[in-house]
């Protein structure tokens, strides 16, 4: 039987590994930590995200970056008023029609088979497209001819310049549980934006790209599904009372917050705890409610009410951690393995120790004892990995 302590340690390390991937995306964009965190929460909780903001705010580039860190089937598409359903869901399967006299779509490589989808200008779709998307988002099913097929969709990421005021679109819009307003970067971040943006432009002009080994390996679908399962095991009981108080206050102040939204919010509270490698939700996890607004203007009211409860709305990945937290990670990363670790597990350990060292130097520059311990563990992990690779060759 698996040791409960060892299992808990593995879960925390998996969560840290997922955070490492999110950090790698955030590092490539200026002022977009909040968006990265929200998309990460959506993936863990299997919910959908809507990014709202003007053109030129890197929404498309940022969401495309998630295909780089996840080993999943990804489907991006720009919708217009003239987009045909076949462009998203696949063309008619000619073979099935000719040989079997049966109408069906060939969905290979299309949205119904994607794990992660990004639809730019999502509200531009026709009613036929939006109705099919509703079933995909709600039930993870797709009508294909006379059959209803299961879909693999984990999360759908949508973007729009403005929220629609058409009541016909309200039901579809509400299926995006999470919302993020994406504006232009703050004035004090413009210099960083120019530096980062020019680096990306240089890669585009010279036809070069960042080497594959420059960042962490892709997070596998199997690993992601394991973390999604663990969200259900996070204990949210300790914050349920305060959460209920906040929901009652929101409704008293006229904020649109449906029963369905309140129930599903608990998934996000649990995902927030897991993203920080915790199995028990804390009051600060209620900050995710700042991204559950429905109508423009409600977001500021939600943030004010959270402030009344001394809850800060998260504005990013909250990377700065205490030295004690880093030491706990170090202890877990250097704990004896259950059995012989695989090469990928050893590589992951090297990556996590490297990231831990960066955290220690950036956030605790004077803690030389911690630096030395992490450096020693990192060197040992590299030696162990090399020895393992030599034995396999």
Automatic annotation (TrEMBL):
Pfam families: AAA_lid_8, bpMoxR. Residues 45-186 form the AAA+ ATPase domain. InterPro entries: AAA+_ATPase, MoxR, P-loop_NTPase, RavA-like_AAA_lid, RavA_ATPases. This is MoxR-like ATPase.
């Amino acid at each position: 039987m698996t040791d409960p302590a060892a299992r808990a340690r593995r879960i925390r390390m998996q969560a840290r590994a997922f955070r490492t991937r999110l950090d790698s995306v955030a590092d490539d964009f200026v002022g977009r930590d909040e968006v990265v965190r929200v998309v990460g929460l959506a993936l863990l909780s299997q919910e959908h995200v809507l990014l709202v903001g003007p053109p030129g705010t890197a929404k498309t580039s940022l969401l495309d970056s998630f295909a780089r860190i996840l080993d999943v089937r990804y489907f991006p598409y720009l919708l217009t008023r003239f987009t045909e359903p076949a462009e998203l869901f696949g063309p008619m399967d000619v073979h099935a029609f000719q040989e079997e006299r049966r109408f069906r779509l060939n969905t290979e490589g299309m949205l119904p088979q994607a794990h992660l989808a990004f639809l730019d200008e999502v509200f531009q779709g026709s009613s036929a497209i939006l109705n099919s998307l509703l079933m995909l988002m709600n039930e993870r099913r797709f009508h294909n001819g006379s059959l209803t097929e299961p879909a693999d969709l984990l999360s759908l990421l949508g973007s729009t310049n403005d929220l629609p005021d058409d009541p016909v679109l309200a039901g579809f819009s509400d299926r995006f549980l999470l919302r993020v307003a994406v504006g232009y970067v703050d004035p004090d971040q413009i210099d960083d934006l120019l530096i980062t943006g020019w680096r990306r432009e240089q890669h585009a002009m010279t036809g070069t790209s960042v080497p594959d080994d420059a960042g962490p390996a892709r997070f596998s679908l199997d690993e992601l599904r394991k973390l999604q399962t663990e969200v259900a095991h996070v204990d949210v009981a300790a914050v349920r009372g305060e959460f209920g108080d906040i929901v009652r206050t929101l409704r008293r102040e006229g904020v649109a917050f449906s029963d369905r939204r309140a129930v599903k919010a608990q998934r996000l509270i649990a995902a927030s705890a897991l993203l920080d490698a915790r199995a028990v939700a804390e009051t600060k996890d209620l900050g995710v409610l700042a991204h559950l607004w429905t109508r423009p203007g409600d977001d500021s009211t939600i943030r004010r009410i959270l402030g009344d409860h001394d809850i800060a709305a998260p504005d990013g990945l909250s990377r700065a951690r205490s030295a004690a937290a880093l030491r706990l990670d170090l202890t877990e990363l250097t704990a004896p393995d259950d059995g012989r670790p695989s090469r990928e597990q050893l590589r992951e350990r090297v990556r996590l120790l490297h990231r831990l060292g960066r955290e220690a130097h950036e956030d605790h520059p004077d803690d030389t004892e911690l630096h030395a311990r992490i450096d020693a563990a990192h060197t040992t992990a590299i030696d162990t990995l090399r020895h393992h690779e030599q034995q396999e060759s």
